[in-house]
Design a protein that fits this description.
Extracellular Endonuclease, Chain A; three-stranded antiparallel sheet; globular
Amino acid sequence: MVPANHIDGSSDSLNETFFVTNILPQNSTFNQSKGAWSQTEILTECYRDITPLIVWGGVIWGDDAGNDFFTQAHGIKTPDYWWKLIYRQDTNAYVAWLFPNHRSARAANIDDYLISITDLKAELGFVPDFGAIEDTDAAAMTPSVSRPVTAAGSDLTCEGQSTSNG
């Protein structure tokens, strides 16, 4: 679940992302250039060059057998939902999403899947430790918009600051 480009500080850490233990089945559109999950990776890539981030993510397995295309061949069910939370330490702010593992979750409608920490924890059915952000009033509030990023080739612009996407 960790993109290679997010831990590219050394060749060893980058290579660790290519083990099977780091992958789960996703709808192909969901993780392509116009997919919502792909957009969260672009946001993470851009903002990590501006400030230290803490990123949490995971899946909700659910019981939708209609998308379990890999049980015969690989012995694994397909997660029904994917979630991610990005926490900016410099501003003590977060953005979180809960996406269906479906082609309808696109970069263009990423804000439709924003969720508060309180609601995310209720959906997950377990209690991850999200740290200091949980102790603020912001934990119960759903962010109104995902952070804006513009792309031009391999260059990204976040809050007016240019970074490299490579």
